Amino acid sequence: MRRFGFEEAEVTRMLSSVGGDDGADASGRAELVARAAWSMLGEPGDRTAGLLVTALGAAMALDLLLDGATPASIAERVDPDAVAGRAALTSDIDQALARWRPRLRSGAVVRSFEAAGRCGARLLVPDSDLWPEAVDDLGVHAPIALWVRGADDALERLGRSVGLVGARAATSYGEGVAMDSSAGLAARGFAIVSGAAYGIDGMVHRAALATGGTTVAFLAGGVDRLYPAGHHDLLERIARTGAVIAELPCGAEPTKWRFLQRNRLIAAATRATVVLEAGWRSGSLNTAHHAAALGRPVGAVPGPVTSAASAGCHRLIRECDARCVTSVEEMVELLGDADTLAERGADAAAEGRSSDEIRVIDALSARSMRSPDEIARRSGMSTASVLGVLGMLALDGAAVRAASGWRKA
């Protein structure tokens, strides 16, 4: 961290305040502080930031930024062999530098650590023992660091968790379904994950707490800025017995964009996502789409056909291969499907499938045809890459092509 002007003692002090030292050597501590810095430089899910940090390491990527390296020189370091795509990568980095440089302030890093220390937040990075490894499935869109308030066992139980989400404008029907679903799943030992918003989210958190279960809330701002304000006491309770998690540093404010990006973490961190009640344009559908793109099972609870508050759930069932679930037992079956999907992924890897092939297979449906563009959206790959993989899968008999698109064999 030579260019940020931090002395070694200051680095140690900052990391100690958030439990991030753990006996790391000087380079390890520099990497930790750099990841904290990157959590405030880029917006959540910043692809270019994720690409640089993955390829170069957080400390080196930050040093290049601080040294004023040109976009072309950074692109060459990131991928020295990809001459053909160098221009596009250089352009992406050039645009990203314009976004990041206004935020490049060492004082902001210090203040975020100080705020984290005051509220008892910890810094987690991918090498941390308690890092939720499932979020790494987001690839270059995965969080660079996570700020956490909560209990260790709550973080450990994310491996056996379900995302329960829904609309803020919930009806009494939706709230009843949310309460029964959350309490039932929590009683069966599943951690309940949601976004702490008004309506369905708040109800599932409260029901899990009332049952004595574990619940985890992902926030769209810093973990010291508990939002919404009306759920301040609820979030404090969650932080004491469960966990409150954000990829943005302390002091960061929630925004509409950050709520949408927060949803991808709920989808990635859990084994399955269930939408309990949602209108046609509910933000919870965004969570479901992220889960489907990651190959996670998605469930939707049906409601009265005359209820606009359930139109989004019906839309998921009709258009997005969501499973219709009407009871806790059916939600548990959905979580069993997650195990099956994981086993299929392991089987594909054992058969010598590449990671791209696994992602395309997971994005295909066995029931309905999907266009290459739709498969690209679900897999997080480019359409050109998807077409190349589909050709290989067709030769292997793993994918079938028709005039209306592709499906799993």
Summary of the model, kept short:
With 409 residues, this protein is α/β, with parallel strands linked by helices. The protein contains 18 helices and eleven strands.
Question: Care to describe what's here?
Answer:
With 409 residues, the protein is an alpha/beta fold. Helices cover 52% and strands 10% of the residues. It contains 18 helices and eleven strands. The strands form two sheets. It has a nine-stranded mixed sheet, with helices on both faces. Strands 10-11 form a two-stranded antiparallel sheet. The longest helix has 23 residues, at 328-350. It is globular, with a radius of gyration of 22 Å.
Lay out the secondary structure.
Elements: H1 8-17, H2 26-41, H3 47-56, H4 58-66, H5 71-78, H6 86-100, H7 106-119, E1 122-124, E2 146-150, H8 152-156, E3 161-165, H9 172-187, E4 191-194, H10 200-210, E5 215-218, H11 232-241, E6 243-246, H12 256-269, E7 273-275, H13 284-293, E8 298-300, H14 311-319, E9 323-324, H15 328-350, H16 355-363, H17 372-379, H18 383-396, E10 399-402, E11 405-408
Parallel strand pairs: 3-4, 3-7, 4-5, 5-6, 7-8, 8-9
Antiparallel strand pairs: 1-2, 2-6, 10-11
Helix pairs in contact: 1-2, 2-4, 3-4, 5-6, 9-10, 10-11, 12-13, 16-17, 16-18, 17-18
Main beta-sheet annotation: 9 strands, mixed
User: How much is the average pLDDT?
Assistant: 88
Shape: globular
- Derived from helix and strand composition plus strand pairing, the structural class reads alpha/beta
Tally the helices: 18
Helix content: 40-55%
> What gap, in angstroms, lies between the N and C termini?
52 Å
**How much strand?**
5-15%
Rg value: 22 Å
Number of DSSP strands? 11
Q: What is the topology, as strand order, of the major beta sheet? A: 1-2-6-5-4-3-7-8-9
Q: Would you identify the regions where 5 or more consecutive residues have pLDDT less than 50?
A: none
Element order, helices and strands? HHHHHHHEEHEHEHEHEHEHEHEHHHHEE
